[in-house]
């Protein structure tokens, strides 16, 4: 199995604002755009996304679009989901069905999401986003705002929020 560094180099991955590394692999520019309340979007986009032992967290963020996550190889990745009604859900993307790991995870738009490398060197997934991803449709979680929304999950919220700083927001 390739190392995290080899995955980054072979796939041309770059740092992602939410943590980890990514590269867009597809956008449906051969189709008419989909109209959303936030503007026109591609009907579908996809990325490769990698968490590593030195960048192991995908920090809390909210997307407007629905996202399908597919585990490809490497170590498992744990997902934490906070639904608008306050319900908490977790899933582990990975290859070992005997341990309850799943190959695919669907996350509806409007659900707060954080992820972390469960253990090991790296985990590589891909994401398919519909309507297509646009940074304007993503909100990075801020600790105090998320704690106000999900007071029963304060420890979890604070554990996976991106450290605040001048470049800690997207779009």
UniProtKB/TrEMBL annotation:
<dbReference type="InterPro" id="IPR039935">
    <property type="entry name" value="YML079W-like"/>
</dbReference>
<dbReference type="InterPro" id="IPR011051">
    <property type="entry name" value="RmlC_Cupin_sf"/>
</dbReference>
<dbReference type="InterPro" id="IPR009327">
    <property type="entry name" value="Cupin_DUF985"/>
</dbReference>
<dbReference type="Pfam" id="PF06172">
    <property type="entry name" value="Cupin_5"/>
</dbReference>
<protein>
    <submittedName>
        <fullName>Cupin</fullName>
    </submittedName>
</protein>
<feature type="domain" description="DUF985">
    <location>
        <begin position="5"/>
        <end position="140"/>
    </location>
</feature>
<dbReference type="InterPro" id="IPR014710">
    <property type="entry name" value="RmlC-like_jellyroll"/>
</dbReference>
């Amino acid at each position: 199995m390739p190392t995290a560094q080899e995955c980054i180099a072979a796939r041309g991955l770059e740092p992602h604002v939410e943590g980890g590394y990514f590269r867009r692999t597809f956008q449906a520019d051969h189709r008419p755009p989909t109209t959303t309340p936030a503007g026109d979007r591609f009907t579908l986009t996809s990325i490769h996304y990698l968490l590593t032992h030195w960048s192991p967290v995908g920090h809390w963020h909210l997307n407007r679009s629905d996202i399908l996550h597919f585990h490809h190889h490497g170590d498992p990745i744990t997902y934490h989901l906070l639904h608008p009604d306050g319900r908490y859900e977790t899933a582990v993307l990975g290859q070992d069905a005997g341990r309850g790991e799943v190959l695919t995870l669907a996350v509806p738009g409007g659900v707060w999401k954080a992820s972390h490398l469960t253990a090991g060197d790296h985990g590589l997934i891909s994401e398919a986003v519909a309507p297509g991803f646009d940074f304007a449709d993503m909100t990075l979680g801020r600790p105090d705002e998320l704690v106000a929304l999900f007071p029963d999950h304060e420890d979890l919220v604070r554990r996976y929020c991106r450290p605040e700083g001048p470049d800690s927001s997207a779009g």
